[in-house]
Amino acid sequence: MSQFSMTPIVESAVSGEDRTMILNMGPQHPSTHGVLRLVLEIDGETVVRIRPEIGYLHTGIEKTCEAKFYQQVVPLTDRIDYLCPMTNNLTYCLAVEKLLGLELPPRAQWLRVMFNELTRINSHLVWLGTHALDIGAMTVFLYCFREREEILKMFEMVAGQRMMTSYFRVGGVSMDLPLGFTGFLRNFAGYFPDRIDEYENLLTNNPIWMDRTKGVAKITREDAFALMLSGPTARGSGIDWDLRRDMPYTGYENFKFKVPVATEGDVYARYVVRVAELRESISIVKQALEGLPEGPIKADAPKVVLPDREKMKTQMESLIYHFKIVTEGFTVPPGEVYQGVESPRGEMGYFVTSDGTAKPYRVHMRAPSFANLNAISVMCEGGLLADVVAAIGSIDIVLGDVDR
Amino acid sequence: MALEPAVTELEQLKERPAVASLLRWKPDAIQAVKWDRNELTIWIAPIDLREACKHLREDEATQFIFLADITAVDWYPAEPRFEVVYSLLSHKLKERLRLKVKASGQDPNVESLTSLWPGASPFEREVYDLMGIRFQGHPDLRRIMMPDDWEGHPLRKDYPVEGYR
Questions:
Q1: Which domain holds residue B83?
Q2: Contact A86/A115 with Cβ under 8 angstroms?
Q3: Looking at chain B, which terminus has fewer C-beta neighbours within 10 angstroms, N or C?
Q4: Residue B93 falls inside a structural domain
Q5: Tell me, what's the ipTM?
Q6: Residue A3 pLDDT > 60
Q7: What is the CATH number of the domain that holds B101?
Q8: Contact of A9 with A22, CB cutoff 8 Å
Q9: Which residues of B are less than 8 Å from A227 in CB distance?
Q10: What is the mean pLDDT of residues B104-128?
Q11: Does residue B161 sit within a domain?
């Protein structure tokens, strides 16, 4: 596999023939979606080598987690990938619940599926808008953010926050649906498929869009495995794998949905896969809304889950549990788990190690953007400089997720 | 709260495809096994790590084709101090496997997997940067998250959370 050269770019223009030049792209560049710095070696308009330099957004969240109680880690997980906060919450909560051996009531699971899919739509809309904007189609951006606003309103309704929701907690979700939410969501789910048609009208058969994306930044199936790619980026290269379908968690086995796969492996294929995922996600949201079971939204585990406000104010026992959880946290039996979840970007995994105390011994996040960034050299080398922007957009990275 | 006790007997786990495959290939490579919370962990002898991964990836019965993650845990002050953790996924079996390799506190060293999965490169750089574990055979082992002139490895347990003052 000699095509994956990983040698750094160091002043080769000086030592070599002087045909190529070194170009710095970022860390403050609008099309890098954050603080990604790319070092490019270019020969005229052709990219010879490209290396990402990351770490500008490194906040040491993994280290911070070790100093917090288990329940205090939840708000930290939002901040990793700010476009899909709920997916991060979900992965962490599932990992801790697996460590505890906790069973969740059906209503909590269905709510989690519903909001996880809304988060996927939210994330894909930002991706579609900014990706199209990078390539030069401005209108799509405005349309996408119009629908995203409605989703953020729904997040605010249930969690009180638009972006850093922390809605999922260890052992359930923080609150039940507020009054009027179901109608709002039903209305949204009703018109959203038409809005997807609207985006597609602007892009799918647009000759400029096809020129800029078809055959650009190809990734083969073999490369996708070698570079540890996952999610829509891998599915655009013909890898038929989705954790929601193949290793279901939090009740995904109860839902019917298709996993879109494309085989071309270019920017257009990844676009097709993600737009098809939008349709599948809204269909899952509809199924979750129609079949939402009644019942409790938190697991029956008084030592782990905070009691209801009402009970806390009327029952001595609940008050004691509440006081204990807030001041001392809850202990988790020793062991370690790895929980993988299909995030909008690919496989998001949390590796949580417990030593039997109330604070996690080690929390590690397997960030999908971090792995997907591997693809950049395969996609760009030998291509044109202008296509680098299309390539970055097509793997949908979030720099908070890359650097953590 | 139904947690079953962990199974650590090799005899009880030899039916698992990953264990069976490794036993057929090289029984000495397995140092220990654990089945806990429906997850399988195998401790591999450090010298066999690369070959074991290659075998598990290419064996028809297992096909652990996707390397999901590389990370490390610091068990300071125990010795051997570090455990490097590899999460593998088999699309065929729809199963995960965790491989672990122990590394000592003085000059921790592990074989690099970049020759099998080139995508392992940034993951190994991250472990090197934050834990200070060296990967033999990595083509470009530099810091990735912290600045190049940073002192110490922040995720080690003897590194204070608020940093050195």
A1: 10-108
A2: yes
A3: C
A4: yes
A5: 0.91
A6: no
A7: 3.30.460.80
A8: yes
A9: 117-119
A10: 89
A11: no
